[in-house]
Amino acid sequence: MAEGPKTEYKIILIGDPNVGKTSYFLRVRDGNFVETEELRSTILSGVEYLKYEMTIDDCKILVHLHDTGGGERFRTLTSNFYRHANAAILMFSVEDRFTFENLQEWYENASEALPDIDNFVWGVLGNKIDLPLEVDEESVDIKCENIGTKLKFYTSAKTGEMVKESLEEVIREVHKQSMARRATGHGMDTFRPSGVKITSTPGSSTNKSKCC
Ligand code: GDP
Ligand code: MG
Fold this sequence. Notes:
By secondary structure, the chain is of the alpha/beta class. It has helices spanning about 20-30, 35-45, 80, 95-100, 105-115, 135-145, 165-185; strands spanning about 5-15, 50-55, 60-65, 85-95, 120-125, 150-155, 190, 200. The two termini are about 15 Å apart. Guanosine-5'-diphosphate binds near residues 19, 20, 35, 40 and 156.
């Protein structure tokens, strides 16, 4: 069977420095945990996104997962970082309450930078669950309610717990919403690596596949 085109999405990781975004990124990419900042920078050497593939209902999905590349330390995330993003994972560290409180600012900054927040998926993710909890779950639930998302995760990039599962759940939600828009005639937006946003309308394809 000929391989059809892939549906592509872009997902960004945002949150305070030190919450474990790069560790999460590397856990997804390489399946391991890299302890020191020095080693992480060497391994990444400027690479700021990875490609993650999964299949949902026979539809091949290709996700571009973007790490900040350290720009958040100087509050210098570019508009390019947000451009064409379909979802953001708002990350905090469960052992640092301050990083949780700062999520609101990350949420507001991203909302301003994003061109289309109506069709946007948010996830809230507490990382470092292998360490003692300093953020109560009730506050996290309230935050999720305020943001309007049901996507709430607790992960450990160190042990790998819930890392891939959390990413895949975000991807599933992005895809579900994208397919729903397509079904209601609002087109399906997918991200392309070239930076061009492709919109296909219902019935415009002769391909039997429901998604591509
Ligand atoms: P970033 O600044 O958000 O990209 O965070 P990093 O991935 O650079 O991680 C910051 C620090 O937290 C590093 O010392 C990591 O080794 C550590 N770290 C990241 N994730 C975890 C985790 O799940 N558990 C523990 N115990 N430490 C972690
Ligand atoms: Mg980092």
